[in-house]
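User: Hey, my collaborator sent me this sequence without any context and asked if I could get a structure. I don't really work with proteins. Can you help?
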Amino acid sequence: MSSSSASVTDEQINDLLSKLQATVKNIYILMMQASAAKVLQETCDYIRSLHREVDDLSERLSDLLADAEVNSAQAAIIRSFLN
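Assistant: No problem. I've predicted the 3D structure and written it out in structure-token form, which is a compact way to encode the shape of the chain:
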């Protein structure tokens, strides 16, 4: 083999390695973006579930206060926490 033939092969290998590195980098970036998107989606889902839980507890508390006597000491304490 001549040295120019080996030189071309080395250049081709270097070119392919550069392309492979760029591809791997792009795949890594896409994976990180997908991972970040998944974390964000799970966070949003959790916040929505907390909102539903707050709504449920608020409704239950309203029902309890409606059933309690208006002048009840317990109802007064609960109302003071809400203000």
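In plain terms: The helical segments are 3-67, 73-82. You can pass these tokens on to your collaborator as they are.
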